Amino acid sequence: MNGARRHGLAMTAGTSAGARGAALVLLCGLHAGAAQAQGAAPPQNLPAPDASTPATAPAVAPDATAPTAHKNTLSAADAAEAAAAAKDEILVTAHRQRGAVATDVPPETTINATAIHALGAADLDEVFADLAPEIGGGATTTLGAAQPPIILVNGQRVAGFSTIKDLPPEAVRRIEVFPEQVALQYGYGPNQRVVNVVLRASYRALTLLGRYTLAPDNFRGVYRAKVDLLRISENAHWNIDLDYRHQDPIFADTTLAGPTTDGTVPRHTLATQDDHLTLSGLSNRKFGNVTAELTGSLDLETIQSRPGLQDVDGDLLASQGLADLISGPLNRSDSTVEAQTNLTLNGKLDDGWRWSYVGRLDDTTHVTRTDPAVGNAGMALVTLPSPGLLGTRCATAAADCVSTDLRTASSDVYLNGNVFNLPAGAITASLRTGVVFSGIRSDSPLVPMSTTRDRTESNAQADVEFPLTSRDSFIGKLTVGGNGEARKLSDFGTLTTAGSTLDWSPIKPVDFLASFSHTQQAPTLLQLGEAGLDTPDLREFDFVNDTTSIVQRITGGNADLDHETSRIAKFRLQVTPLHPANLTLSAEYTIQRTRNPIANITAATAQTMAAFPDNFTRQNGYLTSIDVSPVNLARRDTDQLHYGINYSTAFGPTHLATATSAESRDQFQIALYDTWRTRDDVWLRQGTTKLDLLDGDVISDIGGTPAHQIELQTTVSTPAWSADINAMWQTHTTATAGTLAQDSLTFSQGITFNLRLQINLADQHWLNRIFPALRGSLNISADNLLGAHTVVHQNGGGVPAAYSQSYLNPTGRTFRITLRKRFR
Which of 190, 331, 395, 697 could share a disulfide with 691, CB 3.0–4.6 Å? Predict the structure, then answer.
């Protein structure tokens, strides 16, 4: 059924520090004067530089006055790490910070340890969800979502975000967000941002988490338990994590019985029951100049649901002359098992060139079983699939079973270094080559009933950057680059990517980036060969008849998909006007033109039905079935401006250092962003009329494209407590419905407001006197506090049955309490 919509945001800013000779002395003097004016003690000494890592540019660091440790809660190792982190701002420019990215491009944002801790997140997975607006922006997929970022750890390549998503936030020293140009320098594509996660130099803890979430509107419970054991030293770290989550289902008040049902009719679900268990491990060790990392994970998940109809739905079908489509409720179980292992090697050659190797193995099996629901049969309280589900296939003729098994093995090698020197600096080159072997097997009672598809891919990529002028030039620092990639696929032939970049910094506080790319992208194997699945008894709005219909929704792959071609131009301006204050102003304008874009059509309009008639079925003139499998559109043109402000500062008196904590001050940070979409035009087929998704046209059943999406995230952090406010609002959209031009639907979204309060129990002395053993952190959260959800109104003010709140957002607002305890 129609799902809930997700949001997230967060970030803070970082700035680079001064560096040589008189500039360093001047910076230290200014810093000490500011600290004295605000009651803070000046830094006592400089951190020892890492002489083994020559820098190509100053590194951006957190605010030196920001608190990085909490009073009476840190071990001696924690205090030493906190003191080192507090001095990150004062650097020698001949050397790079520990864990810094090897690039001249400054980060767009730097989030320090205090701001990360203030989010109250359970792990890096939740941290990245909060940082989504800052990490996003720029190029998007054809479905409108931001491209996922490339992940680096301590400035080095890793196998992906899955290798670090379970780490506790306390293990992170800072997070840096870089523009897409840095992805090219690390051997990745031109349209993904880069996020560098810098771990602490020393950390060891066993972290226990317990969480309870309640949705008071329907008393839905969500539970989570997590155990994480992590050890980080200078030359090695390892991690073991066990994470279990459970969501209760939400049942409808009544359920319509089928024509042959006898006895009690079990109620159908408005929200599913979800059980998810993850076991993951990581081992990273340095052997001389080579760092080796081996990771593995096993994910087990079962989602239970019960499709069905209410009495009002039966009346609707009867009024449309479709009473024969009424059927009883069904029990559905979706089980997924994913096993993944990765090997990553990073090293440095004698001539200074850096290299890395990344190998991945991934096997995922998804099986869906559907049976009639009769009697008082309920859902299993807790159920998880066996790892033996991997590789399982349904019998082709099985009407109650659908299965998809996807296997991937990949390997790539990467090199980066200086080719030779020019007067303005060194020419740098990044080279990568790799192979990918993948295959998919699927079985379904729908046509095609059985699919087997294999793909082999070999690829090579190169990026070369030329410094034309140095910072001493009268026009400032100017660097240009060119990049290209060739991918030979067994099923799509050779696809190419070509692009260029320009980085200009006329003065130090200002940086201008421009990039252009032409990319050919093949559909994924899931888009081509995923098993077809039929979900009955869903409410769908019929934009042609201006009414609600009860339909069957078909999902799956489409073997006839063609590759898509994109041309993307991006222009980014970043200004840090109050150096060394942590204030950053940024704006990025993106122009994207895509041919043959791959999309899912979920809106039954006159235009979509004319372009894809085979995807829609009608009886008696009413919509009864819709196939939302991916299709190629003719063209999509989008323009957008993503701009905002990041600011963080320390305030209040200095918290004096103790035997277990470093000197610190309270911190405030705020991030405010607006994504302003100025164009979103779609041509469904060659020769068809343009659809303007910003002005009344839709291809999605949840409306068009909002012109503005504003996101706010702000935190206040002290040693005893921290608070995080997270909000999002977007402009309404409209959609034409029916045969009259004045018939329309308005899709509006209230302000999504999340509030989180985190309390450091060790600093609550009155509580410690009552419960001496009580330590850790307590997080109290209210998500969607105002109960915002998509509201759909017709011209007369009525709400179509397809868009009732119980159907679109059955969970509503939620309140949760999280207790985390660290044992060191």
Answer: 697
Cα(444)–Cα(93) distance, integer angstroms: 61
Query: Cβ neighbours of residue 36 under 8 Å, at least 6 residues apart?
Result: 42
Q: Residue for token digits 């099985």?
A: 398
Chain-wide mean pLDDT for the chain? Answer: 85
Of 158, 159, 133, the closest CA to residue 146 belongs to 133
Using a 10 angstrom Cβ sphere, with 0-12 exposed, 13-18 middle and 19 or more buried, the burial of residue 126 is middle
Written as one letter, the residue type at 325 is L
Q: What is the pTM of this model?
A: 0.85
Mean pLDDT value across residues 160-174: 93
- CA distances, 782 to each of 253, 723, 777, 789, 812 (Å): 26, 12, 17, 15, 11
643 closest CA partner among 711, 593, 693, 591: 711
Closest CA to 191 of 134, 150, 237, 132: 150
pLDDT digits (tens, 9 = 90+) for 480-539: 999 999 999 999 999 999 999 999 999 988 999 999 999 999 999 999 999 999 999 999
What number of other Cβ atoms are within 10 A of residue 797's Cβ? 7
User: CA 591 to CA 584: how far, in whole Å?
Assistant: 23
Length of the chain as a residue count: 824
The predicted model gives 255-277 an average pLDDT of: 85
Give kind and range of the element (H or E) at residue 17.
none
Q: What are phi and psi of 803, to 5 degrees?
A: -115, 30
Hey, is 180 helix, strand or coil? Answer: helix
Q: Which residue has the higher pLDDT, 311 or 693?
A: 693
- Nearest CA to 65 out of 649, 576, 579, 646 is that of 649
Residue 140 has pLDDT above 80, yes or no: no
Q: Beta partners for 815?
A: 214, 782
Under 8 Å between Cβ of 166 and 123: yes
For residue range 626-638, list pLDDT tens digits in order: 999 999 999 999 9
7-16, 305-314, 454-463: which has the minimum mean pLDDT? 7-16
**Residue 308 burial class via C-beta count within 10 angstroms: exposed 0-12, middle 13-18, buried 19 and up:** buried
Omega before 772 cis (within 30°)? no
